[in-house]
Specification:
3 helices; single chain; about 35% helix; two-stranded antiparallel ribbon; globular; 4 strands
């Protein structure tokens, strides 16, 4: 498997583990000193445990949408990966 294929597989594994709420599996993909930044809210989450806790405790029925740079759903053949999160709040 070449570097591009490995990167695509890792990105897909990341999305799959988040979608299935597989926290131990997700932990295996993250560096212990991961930093997750959300510029729109100026939040910064430092460390694997904090990142996992943030996702596990995030309110609502959230899901990741993987799309290409044009915003259309990704088909795995592109050169870029963009992910977004949608949250459905209880009525």
């Amino acid at each position: 498997m070449d570097d591009t294929a490995m990167t695509r597989q890792t990105a897909q594994d990341y999305v799959d583990r988040l979608e299935s709420r597989d926290w131990p599996g997700l932990a295996g993909l993250l560096a212990h000193d991961v930093i997750y930044e959300m510029p729109q809210t100026r939040e910064r989450i430092r460390g694997r445990e904090a990142f996992l806790r943030s996702n596990a405790e995030y309110p609502g029925d959230w899901h990741l949408l993987v799309s290409g740079p044009d915003g259309r759903p990704a088909n795995g053949g592109g050169t870029a990966l963009v992910s977004g999160m949608s949250v459905r709040r209880p009525a």
